[in-house]
Amino acid sequence: MSLTRFVIDRAVGLLGWVRQGRRLSRLPATARGQVCVNLGCGLAVAPGWINVDASLNALFGGAPLPLLHLLYRLSGASRYYSRDDYCRLLRAHHFVFHDLARSLPFPARSVDCYFSSHFFEHLFQADAARLLRDMHASLKDGGLVRIAVPDLAFAVALYGKGEKTRMLDDYFFVNDLSSFLARHKYMYDFELLGGLLREAGFREIRQCHYREGAVPDLHLLDNRPEETLFVEARR
């Protein structure tokens, strides 16, 4: 793709992000023939998935290499990825730039499964509840969702063991000077997250183990096993 074409495509995407009214009509499928969507993906992605995020990385996914080399120097991803890995991820996978706190860009009954890891805690509870309702509406009958969040029960256990500073820093970011968007806005244990899923219309809600469940590619997508609550549910 030429730089000119890329800039035009991203300008159209930005306009859609501002309006938050567009819906994606052509949805690529994985090798299994499923439409799988990773919400709040960061760079933790799997082949064939549609990866949705409101980050600069998602905005410039698929960009020409010179532009990605510049972005890499400006990105916090340089702390975790080499430049070659960073460029490969952004060029080899399908990214959609979209603000999930405001809407979901998929039509009804179009998605086979959703995955989201360490994203829902960055939403206010009302926004999370709205997003779950939209996910339920856009899933096919029998479709799956897997949500991974920092486990509030684990945080409380840290407090009980006297690790109060770790609990406050790692779960509530009391000393974090990062942007407001990056901070945690709500916390969940299984009962709280399960209740939100149930209210959105999901069924068969169950807590899962790390890299175990019905959603595909968990060996690539699941992370941070010690501190994370993994929950799956079905439409």
Structure commentary:
The chain is an alpha/beta fold and 235 residues long. The protein has one domain: Rossmann fold, CATH 3.40.50.150. It is built from nine helices and seven strands, in the order αββαααββαβαααβαβ. The protein has helices spanning 3-19, 56-59, 65-74, 83-92, 125-138, 152-160, 164-171, 190-199, 218-221, and strands at residues 36-39, 50-53, 94-97, 111-117, 139-150, 203-208, 228-234. The chain has a seven-stranded mixed beta sheet with strand order 3-2-1-4-5-7-6, sandwiched between helices. Helix 3 crosses helix 4. The mean pLDDT is 88.
What is the name of the CATH superfamily? Vaccinia Virus protein VP39
Query: What is the distance, rounded to the nearest whole angstrom, between the alpha carbons of the first and last residues?
Result: 38 Å
Number of helices: 9
CATH topology: Rossmann fold
> Hey, roughly how much beta strand do the residues contain?
15-25%
